[in-house]
Amino acid sequence: MGEAVAETVGERFRELYGAEPEGVWAAPGRVNLIGEHTDYNDGFVMPFALPHTAVAAVSRRDDGILRLHSADIAAGPVELRVADLAPGSDKAWTAYPSGVVWALREAGHELTGADVHLASTVPSGAGLSSSAALEVVVALALNDLYSLGLRGWQLARLCQRAENVYVGAPVGIMDQTASACCEAGHALFLDTRDLSQRQIPFDLAAEGMRLLVVDTRVKHSHSEGEYGKRRAGCEKGAALLGVDALRDVPYADLDAALERLGDEEEIRRLVRHIVTENERVERVVSLLESGDTRAIGPVLVEGHASLRDDFRISCPELDLVVDTALAAGALGARMTGGGFGGSAIVLVEAADVEPVTRAVRDAFAAAGFKTPRTFEAVPSAGARRAG
Ligand code: ADP
Ligand code: MG
Q1: Which N-terminal residues, if any, form the signal peptide (predicted)?
Q2: Same domain, 191 and 293
Q3: ipTM
Q4: What CATH number does the domain containing 358 carry?
Q5: Does 219 sit in the ligand 1 pocket, CB within 6 Å?
Q6: Per-residue model confidence as pLDDT tens digits over 182-240
Q7: Ligand having the closest approach to the CA of 126
């Protein structure tokens, strides 16, 4: 995010609220390199931050009022009373930032109000976590302004609580942690059980490669219900196997675990995805750490097959991106995010960006799908003060 964006957001803040903001903060969206649907199974994920960010100009208030405005929503500021914030009371976009205020207060932090103006370049609803960017940018601003002294992972936990309880979306911890904790030039190897983390150098450009994000621009309407079913299925699998979470099934014990599940065919498929996906994350980490970056391509493809065939959350658009990109010479490709639409990632040699992008666009046109939006994802900085 350039200074220009911080300045624009600051100017708009002055127009709206008639005073300088006390500061400007930025928090990115994310792409998950590998480790899908593992975050609510206490497993491993490996996201990196996008250059796309939510940027917020914020000032404190001392009268218990919270004013929220988004440059991307055609309406004036929304005014709320901090003391009245309650889970489920808000079905609009404002639930994300006001949920953060609610979660901070519920955790015992004294907040007496704020004026917030924000703008975001994270595509909304594309599986790139525009919602987490919104939460984390507000959380970080309040953390600084109210001198709460919370660490990135603590802010992430509170943002997740805001989204789970206040907004009512049963998301895992990956998105908020990625937005809060990622570092430029790195992917974040995160253990979602205890939030221990390791920054893994991930500088594709230096090695002559690129990572493309292909936003299919579709979101199939049943996605939320299906997400809930997968979560419930994973929990049932863990219960049947007598473990706290599927994370506790070692890869070496997978066959025995599947046998124990007997004729629970659907549960067996879910368990197989989670257990093999955790192993794939560990494999990608060791490949990247040993400098064998190109070898992660086939692991991404395995991950896609597992999401498509075992977890069953892909869709024709995502499969078409992956199949077409691989046929056009990509090193690897997989759907990323929750599934049933959203985005796919494609690992390519730098010279193949153009032919692969064109092949995907042509295949979408031939299939009668919407024109996909493709961009290069450079691993970027996590949440930070920007002005
Ligand atoms: P994702 O996080 O994958 O982008 P979600 O459905 O979780 O998708 O979050 C999208 C929602 O976040 C939007 O419907 C909107 O309520 C909110 N949102 C995202 N960006 C903005 C923005 N710039 N201004 C206001 N609300 C936003
Ligand atoms: Mg989201």
Answers
A1: none
A2: no
A3: 0.99
A4: 3.30.70.890
A5: no
A6: 999 999 999 999 999 999 999 999 999 999 999 999 988 777 889 999 999 999 999 99
A7: 1
Pocket test for ligand 1, best of 50, 134, 215 (most atoms within 8 A of CB): 134
Same domain, 24 and 93: yes
Burial class of 154 by CB neighbour count within 10 A (0 to 12, 13 to 18, 19+): middle
- CB under 8 Å to 129, separation ≥6 — which residues? 29, 30, 122, 175, 178, 179, 337
**Using DSSP, how many helices (H) and how many strands (E) does the chain show?**
11, 13
Note down the domain range covering 300. 202-376
Residue of 175, 215, 310, 352 with catalytic role = 175
Residue 294 identity: R
Same domain, 51 and 118: yes
214 and 126 within one domain? no
Q: How far is the CA of 132 from the centre of ligand 2 (A)?
A: 6
Q: With 60 as the cut, is the pLDDT of residue 1 above it?
A: no
Q: What is the count of structural domains for the chain?
A: 2
Is 175 in the same domain as 222? Answer: no
Residue 359 has pLDDT above 70, yes or no: yes
Token pair in block for residue 102: 């609610």
Atom of ligand 1 nearest to the CA of 127: 3
Is the distance from CB of 122 to CB of 130 less than 8 angstroms? yes
For the stretch 164-181, pLDDT in tens is 999 999 889 999 999 999
pTM of structure = 0.95
Active site annotation includes 175:
yes
Do 251 and 274 share a structural domain? yes
Compute, in angstroms, the gap from residue 206 CA to the centroid of ligand 2: 31
Residues 181 and 310 in one domain: no
Cβ–ligand 1 contact at 160 (below 6 Å): no
Residues sharing a CB contact under 8 Å with residue 286, sequence separation 6 or more, in sequence order: none
* 8 A C-beta contact, residue 267 and residue 282: no
Q: What is the mean pLDDT of residues 6-19?
A: 95
| CA 131–ligand 2 middle distance (angstroms) | 4
